[in-house]
Design brief:
Blueprint: H1 9-20, H2 26-33, H3 37-57, H4 64-98
Length: 105
Amino acid sequence: MARPPAVPAEEKTRIVLSVLAGEVTVAEAARRAKVSEQSVGNWKRAFLEAGKTGLAAGKSGPSTREQQLEAQIADLTQALGEAHLEARVWKKSAEGRLGPSRTSR
């Protein structure tokens, strides 16, 4: 038997919200969407768990992604500083060997 086409996330959200609001039962929602009741139950559980996780994170601190981005910014800032210093050293070295350039300040 062929597998039914995947249900888009927006449709899953609409279905879960209608179940949570009491507009339809899980069985009725499953029948309308042509999926199993277990699928609707799984969507509902995943939806509620993700919401719980979002609320638990709240304002307690930066997310893992934010921490990763902040670390990346720090690394890039350090690399930029090092590259700037290296360019200054090379410029000074070149001036010592070739004399001051017309563009040097």
